[in-house]
Amino acid sequence: MTWDPFGTIANTLWLGGGQWAGKSTVARILAGRCGITAYHYDYHDARGHDARRIAGRATRGEPLTGPDPDEMWVRRTPGDMAEDALAEFGRRFEWTLDDLRGLVSGRPILAEGWGLRPELVAPLLESPGRMLVMVPTEEFRQRQLRDLPRAREFGLHVSDPRRAQANRVDRDRLLAESAAEAARERGIRVMGVDGSRDAEQVATEVADHFAPYLG
């Protein structure tokens, strides 16, 4: 049984899925609309979790800066990159649970992020309805890549930025597909996002899904 001293993990709602599906935007809307507490995985992963990764490298005597960017993004295949990401998600998930254990809220907590994988979350759920997986359609993914600067621009210095970006996009597609497959295998709802509705409308559908737990 997962250690959960304040009952936070048992009462958490989970929003996972693919990159660029609008998970963070939906969580922010629902925090304002429903008074829930939103936990943004990406924010913690880029800060507190990164510090823990660096500390782990120091303990193991590895370079603190991590692997060479070209080795990570240019010379490997998207499939290899997706496999490595899945392994990392598993290692980082316990850090997410640590974050959640430290939260006490009078309202439901909605944890959102692409690293909140169905295969990791499902063992914690008393009902599959406590999780929803959002996956962008390919058309909507391409639109996000055109319109969102953080999606279309590769931020690291590498020898071949175009190839690195293409590898990243293909890796993200593979991870989104595997998240959807893992969710369906566990009876967790998968919601396709095609861009035909605005963020408020998508948030309403997510709220309807979680309505039994929102009070």
Automatic annotation (TrEMBL):
The protein's name: Adenylate kinase
Superkingdom classification of source: Bacteria
InterPro entries: P-loop_NTPase
Gene3D superfamilies: P-loop containing nucleotide triphosphate hydrolases
